[in-house]
Amino acid sequence: MIEIKNIKKSFNGKDVLLGIDGVFKKGETNLIIGGSGTGKSVLLKCIIGLIKPDDGRVLYDGRDFYSGDKDAMQSIRREMGVLFQGGALFDSQTVAENVRFPLNMLTDLSASEKNDRVNFCLERVGLEQAANRMPSEISGGMKKRVGIARAIVMNPKYLFCDEPNSGLDPLTAVKIDELIKEITEEYQITTIVITHDMNSVMEIGQNIIFLYQGRKLWEGNDATITQSEVPELNEFLFSNKLLRDLRKSG
Amino acid sequence: MSNLGKFFIFLGSQFTQREKFSVYWSRFLEECSSIGVKSVFIVAIVSTFIGAVSCIQTAYNLVSPLIPVSTVALIVRDMQILELAPTITCIVLAGKVGSHIAGELGTMRITEQVEALEVMGINSASYLVLPKILAAMVTFPMLVVLAAFLGIWGGYMAGTVTGVISERDYIYGIRDSFVPYNIFFMCVKPFVFGFLIAAISSFKGYYTSGGALEVGQSSTQAVTSSCIAVLIADYLLAQLLL
Q1: For tag attachment on chain A, is the N or C end more exposed, with fewer CB atoms within 10 Å?
Q2: Alpha-carbon distance B216 to nearest alpha carbon in chain A (angstroms)
Q3: What is the pLDDT of residue A179?
Q4: Which Pfam families does the record associate with it (chain B) (predicted)?
């Protein structure tokens, strides 16, 4: 479980996060949604330690990430897996080498153990055939799946996905969502997904936080989100004409 | 001044929270290949032709019958060893290697590859940059020795083929009044220049933000700043060591 308490962040005097609280449960896909520029990515970066918040606490199963103890921070970091928006695969390495990279850097496993683990993760995301291809030779959806394989190769306790569906066609986006949800439930990971994709909200939103202008305006799940009374959330949800029409027709 | 302070903090970060030695060793070998081996061709071409041109132009200017012809070779040798091989080669390398380093790190930054390393708990500055700096400091002196040899050989070829100097005079000239200390001086320069070029270019690339346009700007700034740093260091080293 991850708890965030009163997270605040500003850049050059401009407030981006104005005190965000939240609880992200183990074994659930927790979504942070909101329009562009509402602070979703900054919040995620504060949670994973790429940006230090000005104020507030991030607790990983009760362990304070910003306690000042660098060793504790490192040990929490090694329990994280992160899927970046563009995949963030290393261009000079093959798909298999990308997935093997954390094992090479952070473990003392033997070569055969590493190979087994890499093959397992690639099979899990359905990419065992692409092991020897370079990132430039695979599609956007495949890059995301390699990113997921690399994120789970160290058996993380916490999985973070920054807009996993951006730039993908709807069918591939649904497959990525399903994969994230399956992995979360199968390995009982605490997963946080940043998205503004409505399909994701309805498919995998077991716990949803809606951000608006740096504040948390609403919290709920995929079953309750359409009954929300928050105008900003409704405006965000029903910005699509098709959804507006469906809502009007009941 | 704030950039200078940031640069020194960046250099300091190379030595904190380091990874396993084996990781650095394999990265160092990769960078030696990328920075050193892949620069041999351009260094060979540039230095050979600079040697050839310096021989022809020196002979053209030494028209006095009181000056022995072998002086042409002596001048070519000293020009190569003291200035042309170390400085011009490193300026060429500032263009080739500096833009490569800044472009590579800048692209890694804007495509979140650097962040990917950070969230794994890896010191990205140390992992990415330290092997590049060490590789440049090791391979640049080797390239400069090669450049000096080829420059003197280029002068020999141009001089003897065009007939401005005989083979015997050239060999005599390059052996005449030879100061072995100059070889030491020649090797110290690229050691320092390699550090400056790799560190400055890495700094520019590592702190790139934005998109493709900014990566291009970082590469340009890396080359410009590296060349200026090399020329300043060249002057300071000449004052200190000669």
Answers
A1: C
A2: 18
A3: 87
A4: MlaE
